[in-house]
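Hi R.,

Here's the chain you asked about this morning:
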Amino acid sequence: MEIDIKEKEIEIREKELTALDYFILDFVENLEGLIDYVIVGGYVPVLFGRCRGTEDIDILIQDISEEKFKKFLKRIKGKYELLIPDDMEKAFRDLKQGNPIRFCRKGIIVPNAELRIAKTDYQKYSLKNALKIKFGGKTIKVSPIEMQIAYKLFTNDRHDQMDARFLFKLLRRYINIEVLRKLIEDLKIDRQVTKEVLGEDIWKE
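And here is the predicted structure, written out as tokens:
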């Protein structure tokens, strides 16, 4: 696997696609041009080659109308179905209330995609500053790497910390350190924890 890094865009070449990759490439095509989205969470490090188990893909979307939601459902009809909840009207209400809903391929529970409307400032930041990733002849949008790392440090979860370290080491030359510093400070993450997890003191000039 080769990674070509450009501003606001990363191309992954010679990547052996997994079932999870095929699922997300197909699923987000139904969002394109209709609903703005960004992929966050555990799938991002997996996309870049980290060996980590994950069966669902977390997707933040823009606040949408019921009409737009119905257009999306029409696009996926016959191919994807609601997993949680199993009622279309309740699904829209859940979305608007800030709760996630899940979709899977018709008759196949795993993998699945979890959709949630971006509500917090950090979620909106990820949506607004999405990073384009090209692979498999297609393009998807993921959360900025700086936000991915900062948030995974914030959760204080060991698996997330290892995700943060993996992304930092792999994409070090691409990362905007000033942006990463600010996000870490805003989230009030201990600098010593940051140094221990990332293996580098990012405040050292």
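One quick note: The first helix runs from residue 19 to 29.

Cheers,
M.
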